[in-house]
Amino acid sequence: MNAFKSPASRLANLFQRSRDAWKAKALERQQRLRAAEVKIRDLEHSRAQWKARALKAERARTGAEEAAAPADDEPADEPPHLALSPPVGHHYSVMVMQLTMRLYLHAGLGSRGVARVLNLFGASLPVAAPAHTTVLNWVYRCGLAILNRQPQWRTDWIYVADHTIALGASKCLVILGIPVSALAQSGYSPCHGGAALT
Known about the structure:
The chain folds into 3 domains: 8-65; 80-146, no CATH class; 151-197, no CATH class. Helices cover 56% and strands 12% of the residues. The protein has helices at residues 8-68, 80-84, 94-105, 111-120, 132-148, 180-185; strands spanning 157-167, 170-179, 196-197. It has a 3-stranded antiparallel beta sheet. α4 (111-120) packs across α5. It is elongated. 7% of the residues are buried.
C-alpha cells in the first residue's frame, strides 16, 4: 500500500468497484455463453429433425423411382452415381479406391507404381490419381480390417509365424493359420489364398 499516494479508504473503494465491474463482466460473459450453448443445442436438434425428414423424403423418392424403373436383366454391383461419388469423409470415389486396391493386391504393383499407373490413366478417371501415401493408407486400413475380423473357430489350425526386419525402423510380425483339412486339399503346398491372418 505504500506505493500508492491515495488514502487507503479511497484505494479500497477503487479496488472494490474494479472487482465488482470485473464480476459483472464475467457474469455477463457467462450468460452470453449459456445462451449460445442453448442456441447451439436447439439448432443441432432442429438440424437433426430436418435431416431425418430429408432422408425420409429421399428414400421415398428413390423407392418411387425404383418402382417406376424397368427391371434390367443384369443387376449392377453398384449404381454408377455411387461408384463415382466419394464416401463420407473421403476425397476419392469408391471406383478409384477399388481400382487402386486391385492394382496393389492383384497386379503386384507397389504403392508408387499404382500411383504412376493411375496418373497414366488420369484423363479417364473422374478425379486425380491418389498419391502413393494414400495408396499405403488404404492398404493399411484394409489390413487392419482383416486383422480385426474374428477368425473362424476351429480346433485343427496350423500356425506359421514370421517377422521381418527389413522395414526400416519398424518390424512386422505375421501369424498365418491354415486348417489341416485345407492343407491336405492343397497337396500340402498352401497358397496365400488358403491361409488366414490370425
